[in-house]
Amino acid sequence: MFGLSRPDGGRVSGAAFDRFLAERITPRFPDGLTVFAGRGQWRGPDGRIVHEAARIVLIVTEPTPEAVAALREIREAYRRRFVQGAVGLVLQRSCALF
Questions:
Q1: Cβ distance 75 to 45 under 8 Å?
Q2: What is the pLDDT of residues 3-21, one digit of tens each?
Q3: Main-chain phi, psi angles of 26, to 5 degrees
Q4: Which of 57, 55, 12 is nearest to 34 (CA)?
């Protein structure tokens, strides 16, 4: 889950997110993924609820240590590049057929 608001009041543009997707996510998971537009909320440090636009990236992959490490690297790279306090990562086992 990738928030699109920046601490300085700016926003991660669609073009900037697409570059991040092309540079950091797709090379690690070239077999495919799905990107959803979302609207999230979280409690800020002052206790108030903050709303922001987000992108949710769904990746279905084998649960290997390498895949988990790649997901964590992506999360950290986004946090650093766009000065995010947190970037969500949900790991869930499921059965998927294509």
A1: no
A2: 999 988 899 999 999 999 9
A3: -55, -45
A4: 57
